[in-house]
Automatic annotation (TrEMBL), chains A, B:
Name of the protein described by the UniProt record: TetR family transcriptional regulator
Domain of life: Bacteria
Pfam families linked to this entry: TetR_C_16, TetR_N
Residues of the HTH tetR-type domain: 42-102
Organism (species): Streptomyces cinnamoneus
Basic and acidic residues composition bias: residue spans: 1-14
Region Disordered, annotated ranges: 1-45
Amino acid sequence: MTGTPEKPDGRQKAEGPPAAGGTPPAPRRRGRPSRTAAGSGPGARERILTAARAEFAEHGYDGASIRGMAKNAGVDPALVHHYFGPKEKIFAAAVETAFAPALSVADLVIDAGPEGAGERMARFVLGVWEDPVTREPLLAILRSAVANETAAGVFRDLVSSRLMIRLAAELDGPDARLRSELAASHLVGVAMLRHVIKLEPLASADVEQVVAMVGPAVQRYLTGA
Amino acid sequence: MTGTPEKPDGRQKAEGPPAAGGTPPAPRRRGRPSRTAAGSGPGARERILTAARAEFAEHGYDGASIRGMAKNAGVDPALVHHYFGPKEKIFAAAVETAFAPALSVADLVIDAGPEGAGERMARFVLGVWEDPVTREPLLAILRSAVANETAAGVFRDLVSSRLMIRLAAELDGPDARLRSELAASHLVGVAMLRHVIKLEPLASADVEQVVAMVGPAVQRYLTGA
């Protein structure tokens, strides 16, 4: 493959991932490889993440390969490793991206005051599951987490640190962490039965009817009311 | 392999599954193969089911093979097919066995009267998840159902017909099916976060504390109280 007319040695080198000695030219930009590397550049990280999510969704955590992600993202496998490290870290980044829409839940739910917080949380979380664009990444991650202990651990750490601790910090009264998790458990369960198992009539029920029924249960965990 | 000294032709034949023309000797016992088939007999069905559950647990629905189940059960693959039919039906039988402990939930919860029904249902369902002997089959099935649409459909049909319809029939008021499913969704979600994702402090919380906190939410769905 090396030495094909289209790829002179110089370009070969630039196309490869940063080697051991190939420190990125601007060390202050942590973790960014040379802009001259083919497939890299501003969009490469996002492209790899999208490809990684698709790979996890299709093959599960165990079956997902860095080679497959790289191929779908149009980059060298070593560039994937350069950006993210081993598979576990790629999965963590994928979980983080998939959860990005949910990270604002603590502020969104609590900032408007305790009244109706349960219904707002239910509407927000079930809304994220309602839209295929935000649902599919969550489903991919859920599938991996249910099937693989390592993936479950990555998922657990991120949900704890990014969602549960923040939500619990906003709650008054004892057992705030446990109450946050029980509120979340209910919404996870509704999403499971509605979107994964597709149990009827829950799967086809109007989302606002579900929100109205589930809201008070979530409210009880958030505010004890 | 055929014609080895240990396996004369006669025994070879008896070991095989009932062939097209090999109708069971007692046709009134539907679906039962000849008792003379090696590996069959009273315990064969249960042995195959146990092996099938282990196969689904280890390889998921897509990766599970009838050959693998047969090998672990010590029977001919065709005997597996004879008892259960295609993989989908084997999965259905495995789901049914795994859910056997839960099938009494409707009677158990409601027969003692509406008061405290939510707490009793939470204690019963979470108790099934608490014991590794009853948890592992459920986990295997959940993993398959989350990963595969066919498995999700089998799971859905059984949960609907065996659990939800029966529970809803015991409830007064409107939307009984939807309320049954929302009650179940909460307990499914608690089991997911406690036993699969292992989110702390929920994973280590005393089960009776969880029952006491979740019970009122379930009660609201069951009786509106």
